## 1
Amino acid sequence: MPGVNNGVVSCFPALSAMLLSFGARSPRHVVPRAALWARSPFLGEHVRHHVRPASCNPLASLAGQTISRPAPHEGTVCGFIGPAAERVLLGARRASCPGGMRDHPPSRRPYSQGNVQNPGPAPKIPLKTRLLITAVLGGGILAFWLYLRAEKEHQKKLRRIEDLRKLALGQGNFQLVDHTGRPCTKADLKGQWVLLYFGFTHCPDICPEEVEKMVNVVDLLDREPGLPRVQPVFITVDPERDDVAAVAKYVKEFHPRLLGLTGSPDQVREAGRAFRVYYSAGPRDQDDDYIVDHTVIIYLINPDGLLMDFYQRSKSDAKMAQSVKKHMETYRSIFS
């Protein structure tokens, strides 16, 4: 209807100018690439502005003008909005982006700030450094474990000594005579380590075995450099038959340092009571011979004159020597 369109244009010149402003575009109007991608404030994603071709522009048809333009190519778009409307849209987009308009490709994340940088590989620690760290940590753990073990052994030894004190073993004194005929008391043995055994010279098997084991321990400890000498002592429980001469002959068969002690029945009894040694003479035979039943224990006395440990018959000489060595290495005088 050309008549109607001309009438609208002639009657409303201002409306006609506005319509032409929205409809009249240059044949090749290029919209900036950044304007093709706008972030939708409602959807949170990039939305492409779709435009309709000029043939579908009702405002251009109403204004009575036909707009023809070539087909769009990459990077351009033929819209139906005029320069004024385009400036309004671009101004609204600048207001919604405080940092300014930037040309972000569609592969970027919606809310990323700045350039995305891929983290590089973590720095490798040199092998020597790792071995050094492992050695330091392992050494510290080992040292701490050894300290705890030594402390545990020390506390165990203290408890054992305390138990022996409560039993009052070896705390009494004795006054005897040695195998040379000189008086000997317990105080004379202070200041040195002592291995002590109670037996009798007529014992057929057990006493010789235990005395031999005791002097073997002395020989084993003598081979250890830096350790103090141990004094082996034999006290008879048969004072009737074991006089000074009998004891002297007996000790010479085992070791040159072995000290033999004897005395009267009362003196021997007092010495046995200090260590809670049991002994009793058995029945006599036709030859007036008898066997003495007694406790079979080897006692260890420290330089303070106190009982440190004791070893029963089942203990071997090697284990006894090892035990005595540990006591010597961890010994602390209670009087110092």
## 2
Amino acid sequence: MKETLYILSSEVELTKSKDSLTCTRPNPENEGEVIKQKIPLAHLHSIEVYGRIKISTPLLKICNELKIPCYFNTYNGVPIGQFLPEKPIPGIIRLFQYKSYFDQSKKLHIAKAIVNKASLERIRILRKYDKKKELNEEISDLTSYKNKIHKSRKISALRGLEGNFMKKFFACFSKLLYHLPFGSRSQQPPKDEANAIMSYGNVVLYNTVRAVVYRCALDPLIGFLHDPNGNRNSLALDIAEIFRPIIVDNLILLLDHRGTLLPSHFRKGDIKCLLAPKGKKIWLSNYRNYLQSSIRYPPLRRYISIREEIKLECYNLIKYLTEENKDYIPLDFKNI
């Protein structure tokens, strides 16, 4: 199975060596020495960089040939750019996507399906971790919010309903955490440990999803729930919204309950809180393992990985956009 290469250190140089990528970085235990690591390019799904690096043109050339996208972020996880290999794009899929974007009824239908699925998964998470059944009233309220989604007549109203749902969900989420402090949701900057890992986890998931969207021949810039805005990949945000509860929210609670991720793995200042290097390694290690974990998926009569679920969801959307399917209902993998 192909993997994503995560680069978390600055002062790293990435070069090509035959059919491998050579990662050269300073040895933190011996000043003046460097550590070199070779990784077969055939094993890579994508490359994600968090920090300052040098990358050679020959490496980008072979990444282009092997269709390996590269995503560049600041050390703290703010996206700053990307390298997307040239590839023949099945134009018909994108034409259907653009047509659906300008069809307000179809656009609203897709947006409602996304919000409905994300809301369902978050309710499932609360039920899973609420061992003492102390959130029954709150879950009932959230279910009422969810049941109103189909009544939305405009995306602006849908977003308002989603905002109310999320405010109540985060209040419940904070009660389920054992170790990580969590007040209200804050993003720019995150003010406490739970907000820091939530924001960082969302960025990592966003990068994962946009790599999959790119490979599925969809235009990542044109979303349905999230409007195109600047250079952000709106469709990647849409698909990520479906998987945020399953992957990010679920993994945060899992690592918190196990005591794997603790306040000591963060750097907290007066106005912001960020993941420390060790915290990032803990998150990415568990995130990578989770994406590779598999479940039995009856429609295919085989086991599939969490990463493959994202690809199947993209294909599911394509079938609706191209009118192969008459309705768009996000797939239910029953992860929770």
## 3
Amino acid sequence: MTADRTSGPARPRARVAGGLLLGALAGVLVGLAIAGTGAAVGGPGIAALVAQPLARVLLDLSATGVVGLSLLPRLLGAARPSATEPVLRLARPAAVVLSAVWALVALLSVVLRAHETRPDVPLTTARLLDYVQRVPAGQGLLFSAVCAVVCLGVGAVAVRRGEAVPAELRVLVALFGLLPLPATGHASNRDFRDVAVVAMELHVLGAALWTGGLVALVVLVAHRRGLLAEALPRFSRLATAALLVVTATGIGTGLLELAAAPGGGLPGSLVTTPYGLLLVGKALCALALAGLGARIRWWLLPLVRRHRPTALVGWAAAELAVMGAAFGLAVVLSRAPVA
């Protein structure tokens, strides 16, 4: 009988969470520097301008974590419930906590967005409601917060009843809460807005499944060789498809935005506009992720299948740090003017 446990999980958790969060913070700060964010006279101030993207990237990461934790039962499979249940008993309450974070940060983002529109006017309840009623971005964030609350409720039932609550239901509810988020930023050109919004929805869903699945595996399964040998091949196939979808939709939509911008022109606008530079930054992240993913799939996965010790946690932590940077750049990109 193969032992599942190879090392304690505390160190992988810290490395993965720290790398992802630090990568996201670096991505936001570098993105803001590239975009040239500054406090204009009568504007919301530099603190508010920085707080909004930081809140948004925390929203994205918490929602992504819920998706990954909800997906974990499908990655582990149902063949060995006695081995998988100890892992899932940790994943279910973690998903509930992240759902609560997601809901709170989504509501905070609504407040920050509403304040940005009229920073010189006190933010009252009436003004906040008016913002949500009139502005699609506010409606999208509020809808996302409602879905997060639903995830919290469904997750709380799953904590008590286990896999009697289907993992597919939890994944679908979490992904549904991500669908309105592209409308809060990307796809500003009206000539292809509908196509671009659909593309960015695929982009967001692919990134959530990819990043969330990797986080859940490394944090909760990497120290259990038997389970990892079964789950990592399934995730590897998902990650390959997600990489293709995320790269094609993200880079493709960005190039369309630049090509259609007044006074724009490719390839010059890639290096002469903040939007172009941010898009180049995301493309470099995608290239790095392809290299790191290839290393895991072609070099480490065969060893994992044979239950051999590997440096999977270190390589995955590096991949997640780059993913975090891509999330941070994407948040700034979604708010950057194209021209």
